[in-house]
Amino acid sequence: MTLAIFDLDNTLLAGDSDHAWNEFLVEEGIVDAETYKHANDQFYQDYINGDLDIFRYLRFALEPLSLHEPQVLEQWRVRFLDHKIRPMLQAKATALLEHHRKQGHTLMIITATNRFVTEPVARVLDIEHLIATNPEIVNGRYTGSVEGIPSFQDGKVTRLLEWLDEHQRTLEGAWFYSDSHNDLPLLKQVTHPVAVDPDPTLAAHAEKHGWDIISLRD
Fold first, then answer.
1. Can you give 92-126 as a three-state secondary structure string?
2. Any catalytic annotation for residue 82?
3. Which domains, and CATH codes, for the chain?
4. Of 9, 18, 179, 183, which residue is the catalytic one?
5. For 31, which of 23, 42, 61, 182 is 20 to 30 Å away at the CA?
6. pTM metric for this prediction
7. pLDDT tens for each residue of the chain, 218 residues long
8. Is 46 a known active-site residue?
């Protein structure tokens, strides 16, 4: 069965869920506003530039999960979904997902953003299969560390190949939609790479190689 794979941030969503979660922590007074916002913005710029140190960023992003009880985190996540994520949903993205469903394709999100943030987003979008960066959990609490390989850049390819092996699937005829040049390693692996509202580097690559370029922005 054909896979239709989607990046999440700035692809299916009109914004970045990871950056928005950190903004939410600042706005709620959960973290120190000045230092945390500065670091959050710098890491986001590093991502845009293609210079992100993913493990350094994850130490920053996952630390707040380790400092609070799971029940409290879940309450915050519900508010975050309503206040930050729902305004990022796009009608054209919903229509694209439905287009692939009608063709009988298997839908998947693959994202560098951690599973705590993205799991409820996948549920809202009614996408069963999610490959995300996994925060480590020990005795029911987040440790602040990452478990396994982050699904970022080449790590997306590695994690997807593991999933394919586990589910006895292939990439034959697969689609992958993304906005970011950070996803070029995976875009180059699929039959149908699609640049979605792409950054300049991805746009240039897509044009050079004759890839489809689309917009999902409403």
1. HHHHHHHHHHHCCCEEEEEEEEEHHHHHHHHHHCC
2. no
3. 3-14+89-214 (3.40.50.1000), 17-87 (1.20.1440.100)
4. 9
5. 182
6. 0.95
7. 899 999 999 999 999 999 999 999 999 999 988 888 899 899 999 999 989 999 999 999 999 999 999 999 999 999 999 999 999 999 999 999 999 999 999 999 999 999 999 999 999 999 999 999 999 999 999 999 999 999 999 999 999 999 999 999 999 999 999 999 999 999 999 999 999 999 999 999 999 999 999 999 97
8. no
